[in-house]
Amino acid sequence: MEQNHNEEGLKLKSEKVKPKLPGMYKVIILNDDFTPMEFVALIIQKVFNKDKDDATRVMLQIHTEGIGICGIYPFEIAETKMNQVLNLAKESQHPLQCIIEKI
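The structure assignment produced for this chain is given below.
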């Protein structure tokens, strides 16, 4: 191991610093009784870059289980995607809700 000297001439051991990985967050869409399933599937395709089959699968999970995980991302990306979902829903006058949850 490489050694350094400080101002007093004492030997110091070099330490390898491991960068801390960012916390990961699930982006979750919540079911409601008003937002059309087709709209939810389109949102999943548009915001989360899912193909039609994957978007339909997640949409059906939201419909039958009450929630669906659309993706897992670092905090800033998860927050951005959540806000995109909420803004698109609001623009289309749907009450669709989306949350993020730390893993």
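Interim note for the steering committee: The CA atoms of residues 41 and 55 lie 5 Å apart. The domain at 19-102 is CATH 3.30.1390.10 (Ribosomal Protein L30; Chain: A,).
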